[in-house]
Task: structure prediction
Amino acid sequence: MSARTVQGEKNLQDIRQSSPHGVGGSPLRPDGTLKVRGEFAYSSDLWHESMLWGTTLRSPHARANIRSVDVSGALAVPGVFAVLTHEDIPGEKYYGLDVPDQPALAIDRIRYHGEPVALVAADHPETARRAARNIEVDYEVLTPIVTEEQCLDPRTYGYVHEPHEYRSHAHGNICHEQRLVHGLGVTDEVRAMADVVVRGSYEVGMQDQAFLGPESGLAVPAEDGGVDLYVATQWLHADRRQMAPVLGLPEEKVRLTLAGVGGAFGGREDLSMQIHACLLALRTGRPVKIVYSRDESFLGHVHRHPARMTYEHGATRDGRLVYSDARIVLDGGAYASTSPAVVGNAASLGNGPYVIPNVRMHALALYSNNPSCGAMRGFGAVQAAFGYESQMDRLAAELGMDPVGFRQLNAVRQGDRMPTGQEIDAPAPVAELLRRVKDMPLPPPLEARDPDLRRLPGGLSNTSHGEGVVRGVGYSVGIKNVGFSEGFDDHSTARVRLEVIGGEPVALVHTAMAEVGQGGVTVHAQIARTELGVEQVTIQPADTRIGSAGSTSASRQTYMTGGAVKLAAEAVRRELIERGRRRYGWTGDDLTLADGKVVSASAGPLVPIADLLGDEAIDLTREHRHRPTAPFDPETGQGFGHVQYSFCANRAVVDVDVELGLVKVVELSAVQDVGRAVNPLAVVGQIQGACTQALGLAVMEEIVLRDGKVRNASFTDYLVPTILDTPPIPVEILELPDPHAPYGLRGVGEAPTVSATPSIVAAVRAATGLALNRIPVRPEHLTTERPGTA
Amino acid sequence: MEFLRPSDWAGALAAKAEHPAALPVAGGTDVMVELNFGLRRPPAVLDLNRVGELAEWSRDGAVVRLGAAVPYSRIIGELSGPLPGLALAARTVGSPQIRNRGSVGGNLGAASPAGDAHPPLLAAGRDVLVEADSVRGTRLIPIDDFYRGVKRNALEPDELIRAVRIPVADGPQQFSKVGTRNAMVIAVCAFALALHPRTRTVGTGLGSAAPTPRRAVEAEQYLREVLAERGRWDSGEPPGAEELRRFGELVAAAADPIDDVRGSADYRRHALAVMARRTLTWAWNDYRERTGSAAWA
Amino acid sequence: MGMRVTFTANGRPVEADDVWEGESLLYVLRERLGLPGSKNACEQGECGSCTVYLDGLPVCACLVAAGQVQDREVRTVEGLGARDGGLGVVQQAFLDAGAVQCGFCTPGLLVQTDALLARDPRPCDADIREALSGNLCRCTGYETIMDAVRLAAARTRAGRGAGADRADRADRADRADRADRTEGTVTG
Result:
C-alpha cells in the first residue's frame, strides 16, 4: 500500500470513481450480448472435428459388491471406440476435494445409487447409450446404510468405507465432527439461569442445486501426451489438482479452460465428468464430449446435506438468551466432498447472529449409502438457520414477545463475540436489518371477491376461489461466512495488462475465476475501469495458464478475485505513474488515473494514458489473500475461523390453503448489508435469486430417497419454483463498509439462502398454527400428517 | 428404428397395420421424453403431424368431434364454451409450450392415470366416444371402457385414435387439480365435475387417484338421488354442508391411490374430498345463477 | 441409422443427413446445424430452455421429433435479432434489465417473450407470469425477467425501430405505469 494521507486517498478515490461503468455502477455484462444472441458457448455446446460422445454407466444400487464387469457386449457395438473400467485408469484411482476417498470408477464396491462403473466413447450419443446397456455388471446387492441410527452403529449395519479403507481422520461412519463450547457451556447451573426453555427437533430434506446447464465438457488429446479440457466448473485449479494424478499426468499437461457455465450454486465444486472425458480422450486419441442428461445430472453431482437437528434454548423472562445446546447431524452420503467445511459452518454459525453467553454445540457429518452431499449455496448455515430461527419464534411466543423485537434484543453487533470466541470486527447491523424489513410496506390483502386464480395457492390448477385461504407473515435473519475459513490458504490470482490499441488505452484482465452467471466478469471490468481510468476492458477467458482464482463459492469471488484484480490494477497504475515521474519529473503524491488520463488532484489532467504508455504495455500479476484465519479447536470450537460475516433479514407473506395444504408465497422481502454494492444490479440479482432457492427449500425442493435410491431424478418430480411460484422480492440494500475488505464490500450471494427459508416457514406457521419442524413443508404436513400445533 | 411419415389418414392406418408396434407420435410431449431418456426403443415411430384432419375439430349439433391432435392451447382458445371442463383441464397441462403441442389424443394414447384430460372426459358422460380406427374399420369406444390399466387402453395394436366425440356441455363443469407447484406440475390428484341439468345427473372423473382414471360412481348416484329428493334442481338451493361432506367422502372412497414421490395416498383421498366439495359448490352456484336464463336449455 | 431432414431454420433452408429416427429437433439444431442457441437443460419439456418457434408457435424443441419438422419452419433465438444485425427489442430488454445471469434459460425465455408480446403487447404481470410459467430460471428469482418483459413491452408499444428517444420515453411511461401495476419494488 502506498502511504497517502487519508484525505488524499479519499480525493483520489472520488476521482477514480468518475466512470459510470466503474465500481458502484451497473454496466451491462460483457458476456450478455452473446448470451441473448444464443451465441455464448456453454460447455454442452462445444463441437470438435472427429469428436466422440462419452457416456457413463452408473450403478442402479446404493450398496453392492461388484463380482464382475463384462464389457465385451459394449465393445461389439459398431461405432464404439472405447469402453473403460477402473482397471484402465493409468494413475491414482481415488480423488476428492478434501479427502481422496472417491474412486474415479467404482472398484469392487458400490457406495451410492448412480456411482460411475464404466465409460463408453462412441460416434453418437445413442450408440454410446446402447453400448453402455450392453455392459454386464454382476452385482451382489447389499442392504444400504442410510439412517442416522444405522450409520452410528457400524458393528450392526456395517461400514460405508471399511476401517482399513479410511483416507481421512474419520472413525466409524463419522466423516467429520466439530464440537464447540462457549461461556460455561451447558450445565445444570446454566440451565437454572433460564426462566424459559424451548426444545425442538428439526429436519431438513436434501436439496439440489438444479443448475440448468447440465454437467458437460470436451476433452481434446494433445500432441504432448497431455489433454486440454473445456469444461463448466467452479474451480479450474482444484479440478486439475484432482484430475492429474488419476490421469497419470503432471499438472502442466492437464490444461483446463472454462467453457460457458449454466449455473453452479455449489454443484460444480466437485468433479463430475472431467476425469471421465479425459480418460476416454487419452485412450481413443480423439476429442470426447460428455453431456449429462437431466436424470444423470441428479445422480452425478453432490447435493445439499440433509440435516437432523435438536436445539434447546434458554432465556430469561425479559427476553435475554441464556444458553443454547445443539446437535446437528448432517448426512454426507458416500464420499466426503466438502463435508468437513459444512460441519465447520454448522458448528460455528449454527447459533445464528445472536449473543448467547453459554453454548454447547456438536455438529457431525456421516458417511452413508445415500448420494454424496457437498457444496450448495449457504452450506452448513442454511440447515442450522431453520433450526435456530424456528427456536427464536418459539421462544418469542413463549415469552409473549414480538418475534422481531425478541431477535433485535439478542442480535449481535460489531464488537460482540461469536460462540467461537471470534470478535465481530466489522459492522453487524442485524437489528437494523430487521427493523428495515419490518418497516417495508405490506402487500395488499387478497381480493375477497373473485380473485385472479394466478394469485391464489394452487394457481391455474383451480383448487380454490378463496376458500380455505389464510394469510401469514413471518420474519427471520441469518448469518453466513464469506470466503474459505478455518485456516485455509484462500487466495486468488489476477493479471492486468494495460496497453494502447488503436490509440486508446485498453486494460486486459486475466484470471482463472469461474464465471458461473454471478457477474464476476462484469465486476472485474468495473474494477479495472475504476483503478486504471480506462473505459475499454477486455476479459480474457479463464484457464489454468494463470494461477488459481479459488472457487466461485462461499460468496468469495468479488472479495477475493475482485481483490486480486484491484491489486494488479493498482500495481499497473503505480508503474505507469512511476514512468510519468521519470519522464516528466512529476513530484506530487496526488496522482491517479481517470477518464483516460493521468490526473493530479491539485493540478487536474496531466497527460493522456495513451501518450504516457506508448508501445510499452504494462503487464503485472498479483495474488490476493484475505487476512489469515485459524482452524477451530476440535473440542471447544474456539478460533478466529472466519474472514467475514454476511447478514440478511427477510419477511415472508404467504397465503395458505389450509384445507389442501397448498402455499403461495405472496411476497418475500429482503434487507441485506452488502458493505459496498460494487454492482447494484448484480447484487440485487444475487439476493433475489438466493431468496428463490430458499423458497424452493421451504415448500417444494427435495430429492426423495428410498433405501438410498433417488426416486425423483427429473424436473418432472424435483420441483423448482416457476415464475408463478415466485413472488415479488423487494430488496433494500445497506452499505456499511467492512474495513478489512476491498472497497469495503461484503460477499452477497449466500446470506439470503440462509435467512429466507425460515421466514417462509414462519409465515406458514402463522397461517396454520402448526409447528412444522421439517422442510420442505409438504401439503401432507399441513393436512393429513399434521405434527400438532405450535 | 424406422420413421414413418404418412401424409393422410389412410396412409397412417396402413402404416399402423403394417407396423403394429410402431409408436404413434403427434405432439411428442410424452413420446419424445421416453425416446430422449432411452425408456423406449420402438421398432418404428409413426408421425401423425402430416395428417391435417387430426388437428381439426367440428361441431355437429350437441357433439364436438375433437381431432386427436388438436393442441390444448386451441382447446383453451376455441372450445371453452362447448367443453368448459376440458378447457379448464387443458389450461393446467404442462407449460404453454407443451399446450401448443400436446393433445387429448396423446393423453388417451398414453393412458397415464395422471393425464389431465381424462377426468373431464369421464365427467362429461357415457356419451363420450373415442374413435378408434384401423384398416379394418372404425370402433367407437365409450370413455368408460377405454382405460384398461396403468398406461393401458382399449386400443388394438393396429388401431389409431382419430377423434373424440364429446357432448357439448349441458350444464356447468369444473376441474380442479392439486400439485405442489403453482404451474407446470403433474397432478398429485385431480377431480372433474359436470352437472347435467337436462338429465338431472352429475358426472365425475378422478385423476392420479387409481391405476386408471375413473369415475366416482357412488358419489354420482348419491348426488343424483339427494338432489332429486330435495328438489334442488328446481329450487336451485345449494347442497347443504352434510351433502357436500358426504359427496366428498364418496369421491374419496372411489379412489384407490398409492403413496409415491408426488404425494401420499391419504393426502390424495383428503384432497379429492376437498376438491369435490369445492367444485360442486362452484358448479352449483353457476347453475343457480343461470337457472331461468335458459342457458342450459 | 439415418434419414435426411430438410426444413427452414431462421429463414434459411437447411438439411441434416444421417439423422437417427429417435433424434429430437433440439439435437439436430444443436449438433448438426450449428445452432446451439436453444438449450438442452432437461430434454423433457419441463424447463423451456429449448423453446423455438415451429410454424410460428413456441414449442419445446426437445419434444419435437426431428423427422416431424420436414418442410416446416423453425425460428430459434439465433433468429430473433433485428434486421440490421443488432439486438432485437426483447434481447436488448433482457440485457438492460439484468435478466441474464448464467443465461442458460435466456434463449427459451426470449422466444417465449417474443411470442407473448406478438400476441399481447400490453400484458399485465399475471399474464406475463402465466406465459412464462414453462421457463425455469435458477439464477434470477424472475424479478429482473419481469422487468425485462415489461421493458420490452413498453419499447414495443413505443414503436419498433422508432429510435432511442421514443423508447426512452416509453421506458419512463412504463415506469410510471408500473408504479400502479407492479407487484413489488426494488430500492437501494
